[in-house]
Design brief:
Layout (H helix, E strand, L loop, with lengths): L11 H18 L1 E3 L6 H10 L5 E6 L8 E7 L2 E7 L5 E5 L14 E3 L2 E3 L6 E3 L4 E3 L3 H5 L15 E5 L2 E5 L7 H5 L1 H10 L6 E3 L4 E5 L3 H10 L4 H4 L1 H5 L14 E5 L5 E5 L1 H4 L11 H4 L9 H9 L2 E6 L3 E9 L6 E14 L2 E11 L4 H15 L4 H17 L2 H5 L3 E3 L16 E3 L6 H15 L10
Antiparallel strand pairs: 1-20, 2-11, 3-4, 3-6, 4-5, 7-8, 8-9, 10-11, 12-19, 13-19, 14-15, 14-21, 15-16, 16-17, 17-18, 18-19
Helix pairs in contact: 1-15, 6-15
The structure holds FE2/S2 (inorganic) cluster and fe (ii) ion.
Amino acid sequence: MYGYKPITLQSEASYIENLCDRIEASLDAGYMPVDAFQDDRVFRAEMERIFTRSWVFVAHETELPRSGDFVSRRIGLDQVIVTRTSDGAFNVLLNHCRHRGTPVCMEDAGNSTHFRCPYHGWTYKNNGDFVGAPELSMAYGERPDRKIWGLIRAPRVESVYGFIFACLSEDGPDLKAYLGGAGWMFDAIFGLHPDGLRVLAPPERFIIRADWKSGAENFSGDSYHVGTAHYSATLSGFAAGDLRNNGDKADGFLFENGHSFIGHRFPEWFGPEFEFWGYPPELREQFDLSRLDDVQLHMLKTVPPTIGTIFPNFSFVRFPSAASPGEAPSAYTDVRVWQPLEPGVMEMWHWQLEYAFMPEEYQRTSYIAGQFGFGAGGMIEEDDTVLWEGIARFARSPLARRDAIPLHYKQKRSDPDPDWKGPGQHFTTTYGEYMQEGFWRRWVKDIRGADGGGSHNG
Ligand code: FES
Ligand SMILES: [Fe+2]
């Protein structure tokens, strides 16, 4: 009925190839095949072709302030330990003993110079080197080579403004090149003070029965849902203004590699005090803006970036909101990872951060405002997560699959801003779903693996 052929039994590879064809043809026509949002074969392809090749966020440096600190994280399905060694370096180690594969670290976070496997006792330094094992000479005669039998290390680990990203592939662009124009956005969002940001509390995490892409795609450019899904935030006085009809109060910033941001025209929408997200003037004065260009400065005054996604699964939000109804709004900063667990199931991780130079009281208020919005029980968070669960259920619908019923991706398009002087493309509205399209086109490119094994070029 929509020009699609129903899916019949096919080999996995040809199903994936066919799905990529259908997504590209659908995006051209303003549709999306629903099975992209939950399918075992899609999930396997994503784990193999996206998460072992992309730069994936694992931790913020301020979670690991001391030598020996570590946190347990995941890159796709791979469990990793992020460690800080005495030389100050950050290491991302696969959390599997080289003897039989048992995890060597069972803690979420801690401080240790070594990890000792609980199964037979093989022991590793916190940089991954193999150190020794019980009954070494009796069991092995010679010590296994400490470099060869160390924990597997992510070959590349890089930070930007304290955000540690790891890549499980040796090939492909460095983090700066991968971020491309989105790095310019990071400068404007996270680079406003030499003391940097700090994580305000350990990350929260909870399981959602929704596909990881529902969150990533939503944060890539869906301003349209805010007026409906989050209207309760307007009614309750939590939001700083009326959230309805905000697609035309929002700009889109579309970059290469599937990264994109929304900015909201807060001064026009909420009032002139909402330049720079509404940070109070005495704090704004302490920002060091000397490294920003004129386009970035103009953006922060008129349309500060509020929401965004770095492909594949890292997202950002900074919004002014009250810590309780009626109070003056504080800008809160939240970053999140849409952690795939299994087809149609993700674990949502989120961190709240604030500029380290800001007074304790402001950090506390911004933390509370962020918790009300995007904490595990936050009103915005709960609005979204229940809606995304429905998408995964639709993707499993036998009827939707039998008839290849598509989703609608066909909002009215507008041309990019011809006068834009910054990187990427700028749109003066978020209607058009072009940023979601950017996310999906990148997804198809990775799933097709056009770059060849292990490499990951923009
Ligand atoms: S599995 Fe780790 S020591 Fe045997
Ligand atoms: Fe939302």
